[in-house]
Amino acid sequence: xxENSTGKVGGTEVxxxxxxxxxxxxxxxxxxxxxxxxxxxxxxIGDRSSSYCVLDEAGxxxxxxxxxxxxxxxxxxxxxxPAGTVALEVGGHSPWISRLLKQLGHDPxxxxxxxxxxxxxxxxxxxxxxxELLARLARADRKLLSPVxxxxxxxxxxxxxxxxxxxxVEVRTATxxxxxxxxxxxxxxxxxxxxxxxxxxHAAGLPEAVRGHAERLLExxxxxxxxxxxxxxxxxxxxxxxxxxxxxQLQQVKGVGPVTAxxxxxxxxxxxxxxxxxxxxxxxxLAPKSSQSGNSEPEMQISKEGDVYLRALLVQCSQYxxxxxxxxxxxxxxxxxxxxxxxxxxxxxxxxxxxxxxxVLLHSLWVSGERYxxxxxxxxxxxx
Length: 384
What we know:
By secondary structure, the protein is α/β, with parallel strands linked by helices.
């Protein structure tokens, strides 16, 4: 470990004695000896470099410093330190860093900074103070950090395939909107059709002055459609090869396809992380916010926390369930009951409510492994 000079850094003094104790612990680990003290490290991750702060069991700062945010530098740093608790904020680098720390024998705690206002709203916020604050919160009680559990490396790679498909769909939608808008300035319109059937042949009837420009964009649409189809095949193969039991259980619900099922499984990770299935809806941001005080409990919008893409997929499934194409189910009848109350924006409320209940249903099917009965409640009422 590089020795720091004595002085006040970030408001806390780093003493020579603390540095010497840390060096003794590092030397003991090099000799293969078991460390008596368990350290707590706060790691404030930056894109290029990260700040760290090491605390002993009494909460005294033993070391401060900066290190490059790459695998080699972090391995060099944490392979020297005795096994301890390492607190870091959730972010783009946190998944691979947390997996690396586990491999090196440490206990990583990934803090949800959105839930820890002490970090986000600190008037003296800087990297050094954030690293020390993370370490002190983890030392006091890790639950104060609202810890996040990252998925495995394989699950992260599988989910990346889903994200790539989502991005390709987004780019294709923007391209289709662009070409349709551009030809309107000439008083022309492209025929109504789904994006996956739109192509260069639809520009044949356009004026010669704009036909070439439209064909270039439509050619891009065709290429994106081919790549999206390839992603769909890969997702189906991944679902069949690694998550066949889980995804097949979720796809019992009509309207839930391979993409939604696989995204649901990979996003939630461990179905037993929730005490009850109702928590899955809140985890995905589909439950209303709460601001209760005394007798006042105003009606609020959904929190929109959690995974944005999975929430959008569940809303799409909900729209299909409530549409004329959706089969008759308890979930559809319940949603149509909300939509038929006649209140303002009742249909939108019904879509969100069905999406939330769908998340609860999918989690329940996943945990229980039961066979899905679309009209179970209706049949029970009829029998009664």
